[in-house]
Amino acid sequence: MLGFLKEPVVVTAKINVNLVALTVMGLISRLWGLCYPRAVVFDEVYYGQFVSLYMKRIFFVDDSGPPFGHMLLALGGYLGGFDGNFLWNRIGAEYSMNVPVWSLRLLPALAGALCVPLAYQILVELHFSHCAALGAALLILLENSLITQSRFMLLESILIFFILLAVLSYLKFYNLQKHSAFSGSWWFWLLLTGVACSCAVGVKYMGLFTYMLLLAIAGLHFWHMIGDQNLSNVSLLCHFLARGLALIIIPMGLYLSFFYVHLALLYRSGPHDQIMTSAFQASLEGGLARITQGQPLEVAYGSQITLRNVLGKPMQCWLHSHTNTYPIRYENGRGSSHQQQVTCYPFKDVNNWWIVKDPGMQQLVVSNPPRPVRHGHIVQLVHGITTRYLNTHDVAAPLSPHSQEVSCYIDYNISMPAQNLWRVEIVNRESDTDVWKTILSEVRFVHMNTSAVLKASRLSGASLPEWGYRQLEVVGEKLSKGYHQSMVWNVEEHRYGKSQEQKEREVELHSPTQMDISKNLSFMAKFTELQWKILTLKNEDTEHKYSSSALDWITMDTNIAYWLHPTSGAQIHLLGNVATWASANGAALVYLCLSLWYLLRRRRKIYDIPEDAWQLWMSAGGVCGGGWAVNYLPFFLMEKTLFLYHYLPALTFQILLIPVVLQHLGDHLCRSVLLKSMFSALIVAWLSWVYFVYCTFSPVTYGQPALSLTELKALRWKDTWNILIRKQ
């Protein structure tokens, strides 16, 4: 029974020495001197803030993209024992000893290093020679810009890694299609394609470009499968479902999981809370949650409430009033009602409290049992401190003359009666009998006399003058089509009023609530809100010293200074390998011209190359040329501040096109032995040029050694490059 032990157990394995050597060289090029400089480098000042917030479990919103990339950077900090205590306030600041610099930069560096063997394997899976694949890998290895971007706490190298992994996985899956459909390896590579696509999108939304490209290629391949008479209808259905599951359903689920983990980690209140709804803020530990804990859920007649405007832009604000009145005449000569001012105030204040009153009763306390306010009910809103009623009438607002002034009514015994009845409309109701709920309900207040809607004015410069204490204007909007968020309010703080006397009520307004009702949001509700904020929140784009246009990238007419040593001439720049960039542009142009030539000739039934070579040429162009196009051309449509590093994913695909074009030229245009020999010699000379340029610019790629003034001036190959030269 144990006879097999008489012979030694032998394990044999095929090792691709090229692949191993390329991986080792990639690791060396990206990991060497990774802790240098031990100072904040360019956008590390941006991403480092989020890493610190992850370490402290403090909620934040980053409008640049989804959270997966940030979590990977934070993972590096966690593995290095980072406590989050560092002030990320300027580029060049020296890291304190508690900051694990090597650990924070490790994952981007590993991702950048692994792009080298991935490039090799992609060319192999496209059925090009190992020599061409080796050339592609060497070009990625010696690309200065990719090295620079992968050696710091930045996201582009991670994005490119997942993009290339997705492309490689799909190619491996496709090559297994004919002979090993539905095998274990077939499923593995198909599922890995979807996972890698989701990870790419989760790092930056730029990953969507490659994801869409792969979906288009997969759709084209499936279209060809439909025409295969050897496949039954059941088999086609299984192929369709498998692709739908792996390329759509699983990526969507994984994308949701990124946010689930993100929200699970960041459960504490932080500086970005104010842009979220009250319900979202109340779900976080501390902050608003400490104030709203224990509030009654249902708003009733007699409830004391604060009303927060849902829009939250340009800043969060609450419906507010104070004893001051509108001036009799404004600066432009228009008259006002001289009633008590109503504004939207961006700070918590006792004057933000209002009492929900039943128009048919005089009491300002909640009855027992409470009578809840429902959608469509008519209410009066009484200002808690001054006891005056919220009112609007046909008088022009101070800053928005086409809208009505909103005030708290003062009886001057003139012919201007109070108009203080408001209909409650719950915008996010499920039925017309819904109860008005604290935090959860988003409501509009429609004036019964004029049908105007209570609105926080969001006009440019809509802050009132000095007489209004620079607070935000509140108006009655006559044209109330749709549900613009500036017309929508939600109850943030809430208590059941118990004091009928005004002095006792003022004391009550300053006291905390006592009841205990939880208002936790579901994950999907929080995800939906956070995703919407990420997509719609826009920081004001300002012109940056190193911003550039998409046209500048192709010819590398721009660079970015990432770091400058405070005393020596050592510096780091995002600069590409000029030889590689020029060659990539040339390869793209040659590919385009040859493709058009072949297409015209084939239209005339003239076939210059065999059919299998034509299919290889087109498939490689679809992946490499298509990858370049989808990752580059969309930037011409974007209204955002652009930088050179946005071009790196497109550049990676364009570099892969170089060996494709070179092998094609060598196989099909150099037909004599002499021409092939000359062509090979030219390739060797060209690769030597690439290596020479890499070595020339490596001091500003790695930041060492420090260069002299003369050496720095010699590196300014283009007048548009901003090489930093200290004045002597």
From TrEMBL:
Reactions catalysed according to its record: a di-trans,poly-cis-dolichyl beta-D-mannosyl phosphate + L-seryl-[protein] = 3-O-(alpha-D-mannosyl)-L-seryl-[protein] + a di-trans,poly-cis-dolichyl phosphate + H(+); a di-trans,poly-cis-dolichyl beta-D-mannosyl phosphate + L-threonyl-[protein] = 3-O-(alpha-D-mannosyl)-L-threonyl-[protein] + a di-trans,poly-cis-dolichyl phosphate + H(+)
Keywords: Endoplasmic reticulum, Glycosyltransferase, Membrane, Repeat, Transferase, Transmembrane, Transmembrane helix
Subcellular location: Endoplasmic reticulum membrane
Main localization category: endoplasmic reticulum
Protein known as: Protein O-mannosyl-transferase 1
Organism of derivation: Cnemophilus loriae
Gene Ontology terms for molecular function: dolichyl-phosphate-mannose-protein mannosyltransferase activity
Membrane topology term: Multi-pass membrane protein
